[in-house]
């Protein structure tokens, strides 16, 4: 999907919500555990109930890898289901990959070709040659970790090296890489006070912003400092939406939580 198609969808739906499909078998309704593929059945119900309220879905691959082959199969079925039934939705494989160049090429093939995701999250730590292989895929997007939502972000990302915080170096240097137009960045909603500085460096790039809901980030603050003319934001909530109920009404309850955020977003967009 191109960035302009994503922007069109955001404007049409008045939503820049991304729903995180972080499926934990201990948290899903018990009746689903009797199904052959409970993870996929859960995702299918959530997606069918919420697709009109959001513009993106983000399965975090850890939640699938934890269940071995069955988990990976559920991930494959989920991405295929979304692509077939709701092709207008942007998909993010939250896998946080990145390795030496030839290994990164294989990671990129895994998520862009074998599983047809629109984007993948990547750690910048190994530098240019570890990220550029992801950037060579047309209309696919690499979402680089810039300033993450967790407390540990302060261990390295905000530390000064050669007079500049590491996350700023990531933003500035990555802008110079080949096919940098295919980059987006992760900035945690819990780091909203950094967004004005971040926008000075990357005014036009899309930001994936996790950390509203369960992690306590604030949507209004993120929008105040992080929004640009094309909106430029994908706000992710996972647990806060998908685990709204553990009963048979779980999909409806998730839609209701998603709707609360979408309504707030529509008001912000005006
Ligand atoms: O890359 C991410 O999506 C990510 C980056 C970050 O800085 N913080 C963060 O929480 N995430 C992911 O976003 C999701 C947040 O989930 P909730 O806290 O349940 O909304 C999880 O899948 C995290 O792994």
TrEMBL record:
One BP term from GO: 'de novo' UMP biosynthetic process
GO molecular-function terms, A-Z: orotidine-5'-phosphate decarboxylase activity
EC number: 4.1.1.23
SUPFAM superfamilies: Ribulose-phoshate binding barrel (SSF51366)
Start and end residues of each Orotidine 5'-phosphate decarboxylase domain: 16-254
Keywords: Decarboxylase, Lyase, Pyrimidine biosynthesis
Stored SMART domains: OMPdecase (SM00934)
InterPro entries named in the record: Aldolase_TIM (IPR013785), OMPdecase_type-2 (IPR011995), OMPdeCOase_dom (IPR001754), RibuloseP-bd_barrel (IPR011060)
Reaction(s) catalysed by this chain's protein: orotidine 5'-phosphate + H(+) = UMP + CO2
One Pfam match: OMPdecase
Source superkingdom: Bacteria
Pathway terms, separated by semicolons: Pyrimidine metabolism; UMP biosynthesis via de novo pathway; UMP from orotate: step 2/2
Similarity annotation: Belongs to the OMP decarboxylase family. Type 2 subfamily.
Annotated NCBIfam families: pyrF_sub2
Name of the protein described by the UniProt record: Orotidine 5'-phosphate decarboxylase
Organism in which the protein naturally occurs: Allotamlana fucoidanivorans
């Amino acid at each position: 999907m191109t960035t302009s198609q994503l922007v069109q969808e955001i404007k049409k739906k008045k939503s820049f919500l991304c729903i995180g499909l972080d499926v934990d078998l201990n948290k899903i309704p018990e009746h689903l555990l009797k199904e052959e593929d409970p993870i996929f059945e859960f995702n299918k119900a959530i997606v069918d109930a919420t697709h009109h309220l959001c513009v993106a879905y983000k399965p975090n691959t850890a939640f699938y890898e934890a269940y071995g082959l069955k988990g990976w199969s559920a991930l494959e079925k989920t991405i295929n289901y979304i692509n077939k039934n709701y092709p207008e939705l942007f998909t993010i494989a939250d896998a946080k990959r990145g390795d030496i160049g030839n290994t990164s090429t294989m990671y990129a093939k895994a998520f862009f070709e074998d599983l047809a995701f629109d984007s993948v999250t990547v750690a910048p730590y190994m530098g240019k040659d570890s990220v550029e292989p992801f950037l060579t895929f047309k209309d696919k997007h690499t979402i680089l970790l810039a300033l993450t939502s967790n407390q540990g972000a302060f261990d390295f990302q905000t530390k000064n090296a050669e007079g500049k915080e590491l996350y700023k170096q990531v933003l500035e240097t990555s802008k110079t890489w080949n096919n940098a137009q295919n980059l987006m960045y992760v900035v945690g909603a819990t780091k909203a006070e950094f967004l004005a500085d971040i926008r000075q460096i990357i005014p036009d790039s899309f930001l994936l912003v996790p950390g509203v809901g369960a992690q306590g980030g604030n949507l209004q603050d993120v929008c105040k400092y992080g929004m640009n003319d094309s909106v430029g934001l994908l706000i992710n909530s996972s647990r806060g939406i998908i685990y709204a109920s553990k009963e048979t009404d779980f999909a409806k309850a998730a839609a209701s939580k998603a709707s609360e955020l979408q309504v707030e977003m529509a008001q912000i967009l005006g």
